Protein backbone atom coordinates (compact mmCIF):
# COMPACT_ATOMS: atom_id res chain seq x y z
CA UNK A 1 0.00 0.00 0.00
CA UNK A 2 2.71 2.49 1.04
CA UNK A 3 4.84 1.57 -1.96
CA UNK A 4 1.86 2.15 -4.27
CA UNK A 5 1.37 5.64 -2.78
CA UNK A 6 5.05 6.43 -3.23
CA UNK A 7 4.94 5.31 -6.88
CA UNK A 8 1.76 7.31 -7.49
CA UNK A 9 3.40 10.36 -5.91
CA UNK A 10 6.44 9.93 -8.18
CA UNK A 11 4.29 9.60 -11.29
CA UNK A 12 2.20 12.63 -10.37
CA UNK A 13 5.41 14.58 -9.70
CA UNK A 14 6.88 13.61 -13.08
CA UNK A 15 3.70 14.69 -14.84
CA UNK A 16 3.51 18.06 -13.03
CA UNK A 17 7.25 18.68 -13.29
CA UNK A 18 7.10 17.81 -16.99
CA UNK A 19 4.69 20.71 -17.61
CA UNK A 20 7.50 23.22 -17.87
CA UNK A 21 8.39 25.96 -20.31
CA UNK A 22 11.68 27.80 -20.72
CA UNK A 23 9.98 31.19 -20.26
CA UNK A 24 8.37 30.03 -17.00
CA UNK A 25 11.58 28.71 -15.39
CA UNK A 26 12.88 32.11 -14.16
CA UNK A 27 9.42 33.08 -12.90
CA UNK A 28 9.03 29.88 -10.88
CA UNK A 29 12.61 30.19 -9.63
CA UNK A 30 11.79 33.68 -8.36
CA UNK A 31 8.54 32.50 -6.74
CA UNK A 32 10.29 29.63 -4.99
CA UNK A 33 13.12 31.89 -3.78
CA UNK A 34 12.91 33.46 -0.36
CA UNK A 35 13.74 37.01 -1.51
CA UNK A 36 10.31 37.43 -3.07
CA UNK A 37 8.73 36.86 0.35
CA UNK A 38 10.50 39.76 2.08
CA UNK A 39 8.31 42.62 0.73
CA UNK A 40 5.13 40.67 1.51
CA UNK A 41 6.24 39.94 5.07
CA UNK A 42 7.33 43.56 5.50
CA UNK A 43 3.88 44.82 4.45
CA UNK A 44 2.13 42.39 6.82
CA UNK A 45 4.41 43.45 9.68
CA UNK A 46 3.91 47.15 8.85
CA UNK A 47 0.12 46.76 8.93
CA UNK A 48 0.23 44.91 12.25
CA UNK A 49 2.53 47.49 13.86
CA UNK A 50 0.50 50.40 12.47
CA UNK A 51 -2.75 49.03 13.89
CA UNK A 52 -1.61 47.51 17.18
CA UNK A 53 1.14 50.04 18.00
CA UNK A 54 2.89 48.92 21.19
CA UNK A 55 0.71 45.79 21.38
CA UNK A 56 2.18 44.52 18.10
CA UNK A 57 4.75 42.55 20.09
CA UNK A 58 2.04 39.95 20.74
CA UNK A 59 1.49 39.38 17.02
CA UNK A 60 5.23 39.32 16.34
CA UNK A 61 5.52 36.71 19.08
CA UNK A 62 2.69 34.73 17.44
CA UNK A 63 4.40 34.92 14.02
CA UNK A 64 7.65 33.70 15.60
CA UNK A 65 5.91 30.76 17.28
CA UNK A 66 3.97 29.98 14.10
CA UNK A 67 7.00 29.79 11.81
CA UNK A 68 9.07 27.98 14.42
CA UNK A 69 6.40 25.28 14.82
CA UNK A 70 5.87 24.90 11.08
CA UNK A 71 9.54 24.92 10.12
CA UNK A 72 10.75 22.65 12.91
CA UNK A 73 7.99 20.12 12.26
CA UNK A 74 9.02 19.86 8.60
CA UNK A 75 12.79 20.32 8.76
CA UNK A 76 13.56 19.38 12.33
CA UNK A 77 11.39 16.28 12.60
CA UNK A 78 9.91 14.98 9.33
CA UNK A 79 12.94 15.26 7.02
CA UNK A 80 15.44 13.51 9.32
CA UNK A 81 12.85 10.98 10.53
CA UNK A 82 11.51 9.82 7.15
CA UNK A 83 14.69 10.43 5.10
CA UNK A 84 12.78 10.50 1.82
CA UNK A 85 14.97 11.68 -1.03
CA UNK A 86 13.98 14.75 -2.97
CA UNK A 87 12.98 13.83 -6.53
CA UNK A 88 16.22 15.34 -7.84
CA UNK A 89 18.21 13.04 -5.51
CA UNK A 90 16.10 9.90 -6.11
CA UNK A 91 18.28 7.55 -8.23
CA UNK A 92 15.28 5.91 -9.93
CA UNK A 93 13.93 9.17 -11.43
CA UNK A 94 16.56 11.90 -11.05
CA UNK A 95 17.43 11.75 -14.77
CA UNK A 96 13.78 12.49 -15.64
CA UNK A 97 13.47 15.52 -13.33
CA UNK A 98 13.37 18.99 -14.86
CA UNK A 99 15.64 20.71 -12.33
CA UNK A 100 15.59 24.49 -12.72
CA UNK A 101 18.59 25.38 -10.56
CA UNK A 102 20.02 23.23 -7.76
CA UNK A 103 18.56 20.35 -5.83
CA UNK A 104 19.04 21.47 -2.24
CA UNK A 105 19.25 19.18 0.76
CA UNK A 106 19.05 15.43 0.40
CA UNK A 107 15.62 14.92 1.97
CA UNK A 108 12.34 16.58 1.09
CA UNK A 109 9.48 15.07 3.10
CA UNK A 110 7.86 17.36 4.25
CA UNK A 111 8.30 20.65 2.39
CA UNK A 112 9.40 23.51 4.66
CA UNK A 113 8.32 26.06 2.04
CA UNK A 114 4.81 24.59 2.05
CA UNK A 115 4.73 24.29 5.83
CA UNK A 116 5.84 27.89 6.42
CA UNK A 117 3.74 29.56 3.73
CA UNK A 118 0.58 27.64 4.57
CA UNK A 119 1.13 28.29 8.29
CA UNK A 120 1.19 32.04 7.68
CA UNK A 121 -1.68 31.91 5.18
CA UNK A 122 -3.97 29.87 7.43
CA UNK A 123 -3.08 31.91 10.52
CA UNK A 124 -3.97 35.14 8.72
CA UNK A 125 -7.11 33.52 7.37
CA UNK A 126 -8.23 32.49 10.88
CA UNK A 127 -7.78 36.07 12.04
CA UNK A 128 -9.16 38.04 9.09
CA UNK A 129 -11.32 35.71 6.97
CA UNK A 130 -11.34 38.28 4.18
CA UNK A 131 -10.30 38.57 0.54
CA UNK A 132 -6.65 39.29 1.38
CA UNK A 133 -6.41 36.27 3.65
CA UNK A 134 -7.81 34.10 0.86
CA UNK A 135 -5.19 35.56 -1.47
CA UNK A 136 -2.53 34.42 1.00
CA UNK A 137 -3.79 30.85 0.66
CA UNK A 138 -3.56 31.13 -3.14
CA UNK A 139 -0.05 32.54 -2.70
CA UNK A 140 0.91 29.56 -0.50
CA UNK A 141 -0.42 27.21 -3.16
CA UNK A 142 1.62 28.97 -5.86
CA UNK A 143 4.83 28.88 -3.78
CA UNK A 144 4.20 25.20 -3.04
CA UNK A 145 3.58 24.33 -6.69
CA UNK A 146 6.81 26.14 -7.60
CA UNK A 147 8.67 23.58 -5.47
CA UNK A 148 7.34 20.79 -7.71
CA UNK A 149 8.01 22.83 -10.84
CA UNK A 150 11.68 23.45 -9.99
CA UNK A 151 12.11 19.73 -9.26
CA UNK A 152 12.79 19.63 -5.53
CA UNK A 153 9.56 18.27 -3.99
CA UNK A 154 6.96 15.60 -4.62
CA UNK A 155 3.25 16.49 -4.33
CA UNK A 156 3.16 14.36 -1.16
CA UNK A 157 5.89 16.54 0.36
CA UNK A 158 3.78 19.60 -0.40
CA UNK A 159 0.55 18.11 0.96
CA UNK A 160 2.24 17.07 4.20
CA UNK A 161 3.90 20.50 4.48
CA UNK A 162 0.50 22.16 4.05
CA UNK A 163 -0.99 19.92 6.76
CA UNK A 164 1.87 20.79 9.12
CA UNK A 165 1.35 24.48 8.34
CA UNK A 166 -2.36 24.17 9.04
CA UNK A 167 -1.67 22.46 12.38
CA UNK A 168 0.87 25.15 13.35
CA UNK A 169 -1.69 27.83 12.44
CA UNK A 170 -4.45 26.17 14.49
CA UNK A 171 -2.20 25.81 17.54
CA UNK A 172 -0.86 29.37 17.30
CA UNK A 173 -4.27 30.91 16.64
CA UNK A 174 -5.88 29.19 19.63
CA UNK A 175 -2.99 30.14 21.89
CA UNK A 176 -3.15 33.73 20.68
CA UNK A 177 -6.91 33.87 21.12
CA UNK A 178 -6.60 32.53 24.66
CA UNK A 179 -3.66 34.69 25.76
CA UNK A 180 -4.47 37.95 23.92
CA UNK A 181 -8.25 38.02 23.38
CA UNK A 182 -8.44 41.83 23.44
CA UNK A 183 -5.87 42.17 20.68
CA UNK A 184 -8.02 40.21 18.23
CA UNK A 185 -10.66 42.93 18.13
CA UNK A 186 -8.08 45.47 16.98
CA UNK A 187 -6.45 43.05 14.57
CA UNK A 188 -9.69 42.23 12.74
CA UNK A 189 -9.79 45.73 11.31
CA UNK A 190 -6.19 45.94 10.04
CA UNK A 191 -6.94 45.14 6.41
Could you explain how this protein is built, in words?
It is a single chain. By secondary structure, the chain is mostly helical. It contains eight helices and no strands. It has helices at residues 2-17, 25-32, 37-52, 56-82, 112-128, 131-149, 155-179, 181-187. The relative contact order is 0.17. The mean pLDDT is 91.
**What is the name of the CATH topology?**
Vanadium-containing Chloroperoxidase, domain 1
In the CATH hierarchy, the architecture is Up-down Bundle
The best one-word shape is: elongated
The tally of structural domains comes to 1
Features:
8 helices; 0% strand; Vanadium-containing Chloroperoxidase, domain 1; 191 residues; mainly alpha
Topology:
Layout: H1 2-17, H2 25-32, H3 37-52, H4 56-82, H5 112-128, H6 131-149, H7 155-179, H8 181-187
Helix pairs in contact: 2-6, 3-4, 4-5, 4-7, 5-6, 5-7, 7-8
In short:
The protein is an all-alpha fold and 191 residues long. It is 71% helix and 0% strand.
Amino acid sequence: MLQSLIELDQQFFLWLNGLHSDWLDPIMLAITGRNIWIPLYAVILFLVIRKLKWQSWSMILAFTLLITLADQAASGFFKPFFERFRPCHEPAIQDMVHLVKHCGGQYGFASSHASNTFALAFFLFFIYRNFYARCMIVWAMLVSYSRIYVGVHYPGDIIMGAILGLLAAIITYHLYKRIFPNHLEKIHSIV
